[in-house]
Amino acid sequence: MTERQTRIPTDIPAVIIAGGLSSRMGQNKSALQLGARPLLDRIIERLRPQACSIDVNTNAVPAPDLPPGVTAFGDTVSGHLGPLAGVLSALRHTERRHPVSSCVTTVPTDTPFFPTDLVARLAAARQQADQIAIAFTDDIMHPIFGLWPVAIADDLERWLITDDKRRVRSFIARHPMVAVHFPMIETKAGAFDPFYNINTPADHAQAERWLALLEAEKP
């Protein structure tokens, strides 16, 4: 199914997970520039056609500047408990702000090339209401690129509080899950993963090169 053939859902909110410590980057990744634009702005722009609303989970003080209609909110559990704390916060935020929505899409703030049909394909892949849909490339799981049922929020909160290791895959294994496979991005310089994420200055430099290639190859 191509991007144009995939129906765009109209009732699924999205939350950008930006609550990490960014320790390997040495600065808040939400404020990082990519192609002379804030990385967070690029993520919002890529998500905007895909979701009924966009908000940002961040523990940054002060909160990042956001466009009209996009709100920031912090973690609902304290202690920097990892990326699933951001997912839980997204679920609780959806319960409050979008009570008619049964699920929410999450994307991390450091992955600017994710597919433009991400939300539609995750939604289309689910066969039952309690399924989590997770993005993959080949056999690589990208667990924060997911579509999460709001109904799992209580179980996730209990798990975060009681599980010492808090491994993302361990929690996902507790629930029905469908893997949604996405192709690599092809360029004249070779293929790369659409879920390429920026964790270090070296990753940032490579992302600048990928962006320049994609911009140069636009029709």
From TrEMBL:
Keywords: Cytoplasm, GTP-binding, Magnesium, Metal-binding, Molybdenum cofactor biosynthesis, Nucleotide-binding, Nucleotidyltransferase, Transferase. It is an enzyme of class 2 (transferase). Mg(2+) binds at residue 110. InterPro entries: MobA-like_NTP_Trfase, Molybde_CF_guanTrfase, Nucleotide-diphossugar_trans. Its cofactor is Mg(2+). Its EC number is 2.7.7.77. It is found in: Cytoplasm. GO terms for molecular function: GTP binding; metal ion binding; molybdenum cofactor guanylyltransferase activity. It catalyses: Mo-molybdopterin + GTP + H(+) = Mo-molybdopterin guanine dinucleotide + diphosphate. Transmembrane segments: none annotated. GTP binds at residues 17-19, 29, 57, 75, 110. Its main location: cytoplasm. GO terms for biological process: bis(molybdopterin guanine dinucleotide)molybdenum biosynthetic process. GO terms for cellular component: cytoplasm. PANTHER family: MOLYBDENUM COFACTOR GUANYLYLTRANSFERASE (PTHR19136:SF81). Monomer. Transfers a GMP moiety from GTP to Mo-molybdopterin (Mo-MPT) cofactor (Moco or molybdenum cofactor) to form Mo-molybdopterin guanine dinucleotide (Mo-MGD) cofactor. The N-terminal domain determines nucleotide recognition and specific binding, while the C-terminal domain determines the specific binding to the target protein. This is Molybdenum cofactor guanylyltransferase. It comes from Pararhizobium antarcticum.
